[in-house]
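Let's inspect a concrete specimen:
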Amino acid sequence: MEVISSIGRRKTSVARIYLQAGKGEITVNDRSIEEYFPSEILQTIVSQPLNTVNEVDTYDIAVNVDGGGPKGQAEAVRLAISRALVEINAEHRPPLKKEGFLTRDPRMVERKKYGRRKARRRFQFSKR
C-alpha cells in the first residue's frame, strides 16, 4: 500500500498526515502521540476515527501539525485522519459522517476592529 496524505484544518491549526500500512503507531511532529498530546482527552480525539471504523492497529500515521492550540490541533488531526480513511475505503464514509468527523468546523476567531477594545467590545463609557 502506498502512502496516503491528507490535510485537516481547525481554527488556525493545519494538520498534514501521511498514512500507511503498519502497526498503529501515531507520531506527531516526530514525537509520540503520548508525548505531544499528554492529555488523555486529546489522544482520544485523535484516535476517534480509527476506533469508529475498527482500524486501530492497521495504519502507521505520521503527522505534521502547525498553528493554534492543543485542542484545535487535535481536531485538525482528527479531520485529516478521517479524510484519509475515506480515501482508502469509501465504506468508511457513512460511520465517520454520522459521527461528524468529516465536517470541517468553520468557526474562526473574529478579527479586532479599530475603535474597539476587542472584536465587538467597546471601550468603557465615561459620562464625565
Notes: The chain has one domain: 4-99.
